[in-house]
Amino acid sequence: MIYSIDWTIAAVALPHMQGTFSTTQDQIAWVMTSYIVVSAIVLPTTGWLSNTFGRKRLFLIAIAGFTFFSFLCGAANSLQTEILFRALQGCFGAFLLPLSQALLLDSYPPEEHARATALWGLGVIFGPVIGPTVGGYLTELYDWRWVFYINVPVGIIAYLGGLFFLPADNQERAKTRFDAFGFLALAMSVGCFQLLLDRGERQDWFEAIEIQIEAGLCLLGLYLFVVHSLSSRAPIVNLRLMADRNYSLGMLFAFIYGMLTLPPMILLPPFMSGLQGYPVSTVGLLMSPRGLGLMVAMLVLGRIGGRIDPRLTLFAGFLMIGVPSWYMAGWNLDVGPFEIIWTSVVQGIGAGSIIVPLGALTFATLDQRHRTEAASMWNLVRSAGSGIGISVAVFIVARVSSVTRSELVENVSPFNAAYKYWPLSDLVSSGSPHHLAQLDDLVSRQAQLIGYLEVFQLTAIASFVTLPLVFLLARPKPA
Length: 479
Prior knowledge:
Blueprint lengths: L1 H4 L8 H8 L3 H4 L1 H13 L3 H8 L1 H21 L3 H15 L2 H12 L5 H29 L4 H4 L1 H15 L14 H20 L9 H23 L13 H31 L4 H25 L5 H19 L8 H26 L8 H39 L14 H7 L2 H34 L13
Helix pairs in contact: 4-7, 4-12, 5-6, 5-18, 6-7, 6-8, 6-11, 8-9, 8-18, 9-15, 9-17, 12-13, 14-15, 14-17, 14-18, 14-20, 15-17, 16-17, 16-20, 18-20, 19-20
């Protein structure tokens, strides 16, 4: 959880960090970008490093490094050192997700995998849910540095627990050469892709030379990586694992899951605060029911998940993402807290109902020897889906809002019959700057609302389209 929560907990502290370091908005954004980019780049090396040093040893090194650089992130006194420590924090933190997943699956018998995955997923998914709320309260009550200091006691407890209670490594150590060419090709592709997503909106996407270069390098790196991985004897990522039907479909569902579940958590706070005027503390409280629904799904499925066909649970999960999203596509600016809460709860239950069976189904038919590298790529694809989903959602909101506003402005005229009636009649008849500013604000808010509704509708459609694919997965053999 300390790794996944750092994806979002620092977001609310960025304005305060910008004031401390006296930087621009584009410069302070690298505090988030460096963490995500470096994490994505080093994630595929998990399999080779664990085979070389052992899963437990690498896991403890990752916890220690993540905790140490979390402290340095809080103590940084300049933007340059903050970005450096943040990148190193992401470098060590990237190993935590695939190693913890592989260690859990190794430690539990097959009939307990659903329960173990539920506990693991609770931390992974619950982190981004509570991140903005926790980060907001820590920043408001103490200082932005505490969003990093909070990791230190948790990291120390996790290190001691892993040191004394994790079983010793029992897998065979494979002495293979490090695939430097494959790593550099993948690093170039993933790094340029993340930069493209992060800077595309501010650079007007492919109208800018920078974005065109990053897109070209991304495609070149991906081509070299695929060709090299399929022709090399010991690639850094074994793409031949994709021949396993459950694993390849699990990667697809992990990508879709990332695209559908994280964007609502990013869009709802500005929707409630910017368009509806809720204070930050209220926004955090209204977002918390999503985590409650997620927790309920994790705990229930952890108990009974082994007795239910996981494909049915996966089907129900995507359905519980799609139905509330379709309902949200009909919202207006007067939507009340009750509608926000019940849709968040149902979507939280849906997210938990997806991640638990998906983890069990993806690795059900895969050889245990490949579990670590398979888990690293699974998490990489899920993170890529989240990044693409957020970028696409933000782009749709911005573009649809701009186009819709220009269309709405065409109808703002004293000759429009609607302006003969109150309250619009008062805004137009007087012609005062104050009333015209109110009218402009009304048009802008309605245009932004339509942008949000477009994203909610597309999320619902994507969820419904995914439903038939669920039954292509092979059901795991009963223990």
